[in-house]
Structure formats: structure tokens, C-alpha cells
Amino acid sequence: MNYDIVLVSAPLKADDTHLGLCPSLSNLTLGSYLSRQGASVRMFDPSVEMDTAGAAPNPFLKELAERCVEMKSRFLGISCLSPVDGKFGAVLAREVKKLKYELPVIMGGLWATTYAPQILEKLPEVDAVVKGPGELAMEALIKTPDGSIPAWDSAPGLIWRGGTNSEIRHYTVDLARPLDMSLLAKPESYDIMVYMSSRGCPYRCSFCSEPIMFPSYIDEPLDKVTADIKGFNAFNKSYFFWICDPLLGFNPGRVDELCNLLEPTPFHFLLETRVDVMKPAMVEQVARAGCQLIYFGLESGAFRSLVELKKCNDRAQFERYINGAKSLTEACARNGIIPMFGVMNPIPGDRKEDLDECFHFLEELVSISSGINPDLGLFLLPLQCRLDMGSPFQLNWPSLEARGMVRSRDEKNIFGDMFVTRTSSEVGYEEAEAFRDKVRSLWTPSRNAMKVLSQCWPRPYMEVDWE
Ligand code: SF4
Q1: Each residue of 195-235: pLDDT tens digit?
Q2: Which of 9, 94, 295, 437 could staple 272 via S-S, CB 3.0–4.6 A?
Q3: Domains present along the chain, CATH in parentheses
């Protein structure tokens, strides 16, 4: 065997060339852990190692399957973070098994975690699914002597055809390892590097399944973060950094540390946070270090909606929340950082008055931004309210349904997005679309904002039909 494991990701679309290419952070993180534990790992990224331009998905998949098998590994790991890359992984697994039935195919990632039993039931090509972080599970499997049947039951969180190891081990700092940059086959081909300097979230928003993977907040050790940023910088390329910590600013010390590390580099970056976590003073700090865009998971500006989403509990918290959004909009405008606000209304229970309240608040944000820095603009990103598996909304669906909510599909379609399509007797799909159009009409992105967006936003995944 050439490798213990090949980790393969779904390719990004070649035809959206105005957007950037980035490697799979989950494969790089898992691969780095395993390689630093002594495993031989091949991280295969078809976006940069194969010719994706004009590729029809089916012949492309066959060729990709051949490449995966040619690499002669003991295991094939396929990431399944979302329905789109999960679908791609499902079809890839099918093609791989046609070529080499005995190669164990293992899926992992958030989507695979939440649909593990259904994936095994519907996809005979997948041998096992890791629930939760994959480090310890894959390490245990790789320790199985070469040539023998994988010790499935030794792998924490693994579910396979015939058994389950239900001991999910959540991520702890002792599993942190500096990224192994040698796993990136063509680092010069990337435009964007996605990075996480912390993991997890202590909040429990009603629509979010993220805490299933990382239920509490953990800062990655500073020596790891330092080594990683130095490692990226050693490639001598001005990557756009996407810092995808869900809560940057939760630990103010981490903001200081990241800014100290990033300021001397040529990297520009975007970060993600909540409006009640980041403080305006931090905006000035991150602007100096090269931040150009901040994504705020605002979701709504209406009191009832924010309580339903569990973003706020009461009026006092709501006031802090919306004042936080306003002062951050102001700080962004003063420091030349483009704010992007995700807006999820209509959400369960929303009536027209909730949509109006949210819309007026968004108008206020636009007015604050344009009053201070008319050339900067901001992005308002309307999102459909999702019912991801394992999220509180999905788990409590029977009670939402009893209140009159309607959703786009049920849980049977394992690679289908579930959305709320009726939120009250007053707001159904058409009213929701009209609201999203109205929010879009408030957008005021400048030419510069559009340029920044095109530099920091990765291309979407190549899509395939899996059924
Ligand atoms: S939406 Fe963000 S803040 Fe809320 S639970 Fe998910 S990761 Fe945490």
C-alpha cells in the first residue's frame, strides 16, 4: 500500500472563475493530525489536481474514482459537510466500489454525522460513517494491522454496517496539531485559505446543528495557530484568509493574538462572528491587521424572531443585540470594513409585523453605513430558514407543525435541504420570497465591495445527481 488513507474532497466548479479556489480545511486538519501521528496520508483535491474546466460530472467522477484507487490506500475518507459535497461523495463512493470493492470507504463531517444511520441504509457503497470529529476514529482504524479486517469497534463515534461505537469523543486541545502544509499538493493554485483558530460554540440557536460537532468553545493553542499562519505565509502567496471561527471575539485575547500574527503578513482576511460577541473596538483592531469583510450572523432585527431563534431571551438582551449590530455597522463604516449580515426571516411563527420590524431595522443599518461611508456599502444576505438535521428546529418539528409551519420536505431525502416554507397563516413561500427580494433591494454594495467579495468567496461545489 502507498498510503494509509486518501482524503478526497468534492471539486469546486471550474466555470465560476471570478470566485476563488480553496482547499478543504476539514481534510487538511484531519490529515495533519493523522500524519503527525505517523500515518501516511494523501490529501487529494480534484479542484487543483484534475482538469475541471468544462468537465461533465459523470466522466469526471469515473476518472476521479480511478485516481483514488490508483493511489493504493488502505482507507478512502470522503468529506460530507453539506448535502452538496455529500451527494458528490456518494456518487464517488459508488464509482470507487465498482473498481475496488474491498477498499473501505468512510464518510465524515457534520452532514454525515447527522445522517449516519440513513447514509449506511441508503448507500451500500459507504462502509462506515464517523460521527463527530474524525481524529481518534481514523487513528484507531489506521492502527489496525495492514491486511486485516479494520477494527471498526475500536473507532470512537464510528457507525458501520453491523455495529456502532457510540462513544463520540469531542474535540479537545490535546488533539490539536500544527497543519501539515506538505499535504497541500498545489498550494500555489489556491486563492483562499479557510482557517479556524477556535472551535465550537456555547450558544444553541434554534436553526443550527453546528454544536453537535463542537458543543463548547475551545481556542486552538497559540503555538499551533502561530505555526499554521507561518506555514501559509511560507508559500509566498497573498491568500485571502477566511477565518471561520463562528465566534471571533468571544475571547478578546484570541483577537489580539490573531491580529499580531496576521498584521505582518500580506494576507487580507474575512471573519465571522455574532453582533453580540464582537465589540466595536475590535473592528478597528482587525482592520489594521488586514480584515476587509466581516460576516455577522444577525439573522433578524425583530424581537419575536430573535427570541424564537434563541438569539435573545428577553427585551434587555434584544436591546443589546440590536445596539451591537448598529455600533458594529458604524465601526465597520469608519474603518473601511464591509459588513455582511445574514438575514433569516421569515422564521417559524413570523407574521407580517415581524418582517416589517426586521426590514425597518435593516433600513436603519443601511442608513448608518451610508451616512458615515457612502462609498463602502454593506451586504444583506437573505437566507432561507433551514431545518438541518439535529438542529433544535428539526428536533422540535412536530410542535412547529402543530403551530401551522410547513416545510419543503421531510428527513427521508438525506441529501436534500429542508426549509421552512410557511411560518404563519400570513406568511407562506410567496410572502417569504417577496421579503427576500425586498431585502435584496436594500443592498448597497460598492464596486470595491463586489471586488472584495469576489476575492474572498470560494466557488461552489460541482453538483451531481446521485439517485
Ligand atoms: S448559529 Fe452561530 S452562534 Fe448560533 S449556535 Fe450556530 S455557531 Fe453558535
Answers
A1: 999 999 999 999 999 888 888 999 999 999 999 999 999 99
A2: 295
A3: 3-171 (3.40.50.280), 191-456 (3.80.30.20)
